Amino acid sequence: QERVVIIGAGQAGGQAAVSLRQMGYAGEIVLVGDELAPPYQRPPLSKAYLKGKLDRERLFLKPYQFYADNKITLETGKRASKIDRAAKTVQFEDGTELGYTKLIISTGSRPRPLPVPGADLENVLDLRTLEDVNMLKPHMKEAHRIVIVGAGYIGLEAAAVARELGLDVTVLEMAPRVLARVTSPTMSAFYQLLHENHGVKVRTSARLMELKGDKHGKVTDALLGNDELVPADLVLVGIGILPNEELASDAGIACKNGILVDRDARTNDPDVYAIGDCAHRPLVHYGREGRLESVHNAIEQGKIAAAHICEKPRPMEDVPWFWSDQYDVKLQIAGLSQDADQAVTRGDPTTGSFAVFYFQGDTLIAVDAANAPPEFLTAKRLIAQGATVSKEEIADTSVSMKDIMT
Ligand code: FAD
User: Fold this and answer.
1) Coil, strand or helix: which one is 3?
2) Which of 36, 98, 120, 298 has the greatest number of CB atoms lying within 10 Å of its CB?
3) pLDDT tens digits for range 248-279
């Protein structure tokens, strides 16, 4: 009998299993993950779940029973250690082995390790998995002073929650502005002020040299490049992620900042697919390739791989999108702003509801919309069309988004 083996039971792997059945795959589906939980959504880990406002089961993509009902063999707590492409088998750390007709690699990513002395002290934590958060939550209750290393989305979302829980919060960012890797100076300034207004100490251009600990090995301070000591009884590290590509690269599958795949999510081995955070994929709206770290991407590629295996037409490739919740600001992002040569602001950031539109020439390529759903939705459609848009109209809030669309 035919068998699809899926390595990594996260957002992408879980989706692939579901889509394979929905699209009529009749063979065996084995979904193997090294975490203990069934596939779950990570976004609430730095938002509602961290705050204690969401039950564990609510994170799960599907209840356990779903997998049994759909004849999907879900094996959790089991880690793949090697792919043998000639024999078409996967080996696992528990000594077992499984043959495959098609293999899907959905191993996600892992936190980039903090490259300073003291990174291994007690109370220095990451935020990637449910277990990470279950460890972090009691610390957040007990701690008084948290230092968050890295002002990316995860770091800033955690900072917002920590403030809401009443902690003294310092965010350390090496770059001259927060969210520097992902957004414009206008958005960075908005978010820095938002956090400062909520009492967060935001330290940009701050170089962390070392974490200092007490005689019990528990963190006490962060030492900065200017010799300043920032006291901390808890440190959260959020300095980006690395794709889990080693299983593939060790098996001779082409990788370059992620496992290289084509539009059908296939690697250079026609029987092996890679999806989600670990995949380096064509970005059809941008005429280049890249690795995306988002729920949308994980779901889309899960569906694409399943469709290809089931010999169905490729599902539509949507404009990449993402969101972030901090305090009462919902940020919605469509497109990739990194390639922009101009940014145009619509609305007044001081009102808390505005958007930044990104252009390459006259073509709209991305939007960051803060508490501005119409701007997000319209821009997403325009980006998908590759539309040219008048920058004057975008900047003029008396022209509605509806009128800009037509
Ligand atoms: P994952 O969901 O990470 O799943 C990969 C799984 O594979 C993991 O369980 C991993 O342990 C397992 N695995 C790895 N190696 C092996 C192995 N050898 N054997 C077996 N199993 C293995 N995205 C958004 O769009 N919006 C958000 O607001 C947002 N917020 C986020 C907040 C947090 C705190 C985090 C961590 C992520 C957030 N993301 C958000 C990103 C999003 O969750 C990821 O892009 C998405 O989970 C990627 O799915 P994936 O299946 O590729 O990886």
Assistant:
1) strand
2) 298
3) 999 999 999 999 999 999 999 999 999 999 99
Identify the helix (H) or strand (E) that includes residue 208. strand 208-213
Nearest to 371 by CA among 354, 346, 358, 349: 354
* 183, 337 Cβ separation under 8 angstroms: yes
Pocket test for ligand 1, best of 82, 107, 140 (most atoms within 8 A of CB): 107
CA distances from 308 to 104, 273, 275 (A): 11, 10, 12
Residues 76-101 as b/e (b if ≥16 CB within 10 A, e otherwise) read eebebeebebeebebebeeeeebebe
**Per residue in 92-118, pLDDT tens?**
999 999 999 999 999 999 999 999 999
**Among candidates 239, 305, 302, which has minimal Cα distance to 276?**
302
| 0.95 surpassed by complex ipTM | yes
Q: What is the mean pLDDT of each run of 10 residues along the chain (406 residues)?
A: 97 98 98 98 97 95 97 98 98 98 98 98 97 96 97 98 98 98 96 98 98 98 97 98 98 98 98 98 97 98 98 97 97 96 97 97 97 97 94 95 85
What pTM did the predictor assign? Answer: 0.98
Protein residue with its CA nearest to atom 32 in ligand 1: 43
CA of 368 to the centre of ligand 1 (A): 23
